[in-house]
């Protein structure tokens, strides 16, 4: 296997808070493995200013001009959800791999359209789901795969956050057509991806949702009961109405309970392994992670870049990146129709394949180009 040794030429699309607060520092932290080659933003002045700050030689206001001039190896997409698909497809067609912020797309249809623009040996589109990459999550994933904790039985996946009315003054937020959904799509998707990365694929979901406290088209709270292929049953709650904010996941196995409570990121101190009464308490010490790697954009980015250097498909791409969007689509279909939904029902003849509320097609000419 040949490993790339030259820097990966990288362009960042969208120069807002998430790019400057997470993506650009993560790229800079990789040293000479990365060349920050360009910044793209609709606001040309902001693009130029951020380019100067981070030492990028180019700035642009539109993606096509950047792709033609810079010919990047990697494009990092940090724009609002409604513009993800166009930027990702254009980048793939230009030969660049992509790392895109959540949610990946506004529909399963858009996601699958993107897959058609990948090639067998790359470029690939992958997505920001950083919580699965911390050392504690990696340790638990290995323990589940090895059966060290016994059969998975019960789970809790709760994203209880708070967003005030002013948060929704941003034009694209709270609308099906531009955000794709409410907290299940834009907030809880991180914890749900972590859940799926640990327990695997789900089989059916029964959900309800409501709009209780915010003036939005979408829900501001949802509840779901999810059954997994391994037989586990999980409670999933997503809210933007919860003054004491927390992100809480709990997994009850035959031999242990494993919990993590954090807000926007964790390290090992946020996790707890508790043995069942029949298990020797001394066993707990052998369950603990051997290193303390916090969940972060930087940790996922390092793994992404390592995959690209080896010419391999990165994690959180392909089916591995799609499964959480599939769960969100199933949640919305169940909540809107009042019926239990099976994962195998989310096919092209299902309106919820084409949009999260089953009404508006979010896939346009550009996505099919």
Looking at this protein, list some descriptive labels:
single chain, 369 residues, alpha/beta, 8-stranded mixed beta sheet, 6-stranded parallel beta sheet, 13 helices, 14 strands, disordered C terminus
Helix and strand arrangement:
Elements (H helix, E strand, L loop, with lengths): L7 E6 L3 H12 L5 E7 L3 H11 L3 E3 L2 H8 L3 E4 L6 H10 L3 E4 L7 H8 L9 E3 L7 H12 L5 E11 L13 H4 L3 H4 L2 H11 L2 E9 L10 E8 L4 E7 L1 E13 L2 E7 L8 E5 L7 H5 L9 H14 L7 H20 L3 E2 L8 H4 L15
Parallel strand pairs: 1-2, 1-4, 2-3, 4-5, 5-6, 7-10
Antiparallel strand pairs: 7-11, 8-9, 8-14, 9-10, 11-12, 12-13
Tally of helical runs? 13
Question: Could you give a short account of the major beta sheet?
Answer: 8 strands, mixed
Global outline: globular
Task: Estimate percent helicity.
Answer: 25-40%
Estimate the strand proportion.
15-25%
Record field, number of beta strands? 14
What is the average per-residue confidence, as pLDDT, rounded to a whole number? Answer: 96
Instruction: Round the Cα radius of gyration to an integer and report it.
Output: 20 Å
Compressed to H and E, one letter per element, the order equals EHEHEHEHEHEHEHHHEEEEEEHHHEH
Unreliable stretches (pLDDT < 50, length at least 5) are 363-369
Which strand order does the major sheet show? Answer: 13-12-11-7-10-9-8-14
Structural class estimated from helices and strands: alpha/beta
Q: Report the span from N to C terminus.
A: 33 Å
